[in-house]
Amino acid sequence: MRTDDETEFILLDKWEQEVFYFEKLIKIRTFALFRKWKAFSVWRKNVRTTKIKSCKKSLDDNLFIVNPSLRPALLNVREMCHRISEMGLCQIDKDHTYTLTEFREAQFNQLNDVRVQVVDRKIVAGRLQDFRELVKEVVRSACRTALLEAGFTPDDYYYDGADSPGMYG
């Protein structure tokens, strides 16, 4: 029966046959467990979606590389570090695991080695100092930009381009 005044009649034999088919169909495992599977699959989809959204929000909030003002600085510093690592400042034997003391001694021995000229040391020290200053400026500029974009007023009016006064001025 329907609510729109149309009534549908079927013969008793046909109705009994449909009930018989329905009962046979319900005994098939797939159809018998359909409601449970459907509920579980909807629940699993909702839990997964919620977790993904939560992780995405956490990454967006905390991951520096997705911050548009910090990304170029991070990639720039990484590139500079890669370039300076090719200078061969450390002498490391790949087949040996160093303790901290052994590592320090090996590096000091390389520094004091007769083959290393005083001029070479000055050149390397100058390059390292330039690298340090460049990294400081890139990071300071990126952090200042990120603070401004986040709505903060940076407290860097103390900075005059020379050595920074330290954390507490």
Please give a structural write-up.
With 169 residues, the protein is an all-alpha fold. The chain has 6 helices and no strands. The chain has helices spanning 12-26, 29-32, 34-62, 71-85, 100-111, 118-149. Helix 4 runs antiparallel to helix 6. The longest helix is centred in the C-terminal third of the chain and has 32 residues, at 118-149. It starts with 11 loop residues before the first helix and ends in a 20-residue tail after the last helix. Mean pLDDT is 81; it is low at 165-169. This is Dynein heavy chain 6, axonemal-like. It comes from Elysia marginata.
Topology:
Elements (H helix, E strand, L loop, with lengths): L11 H15 L2 H4 L1 H29 L8 H15 L14 H12 L6 H32 L20
Describe the main β-sheet briefly: none
Uncertain regions: pLDDT < 50 for 5+ in a row?
165-169
C-alpha termini separation: 85 Å
Number of helices: 6
The count of strands amounts to: 0
Strand content: under 5%
Mean pLDDT: 81
Order of helices and strands: HHHHHH
Structural class: mainly alpha
Helical proportion, percent range: 55-70%
Protein name: Dynein heavy chain 6, axonemal-like
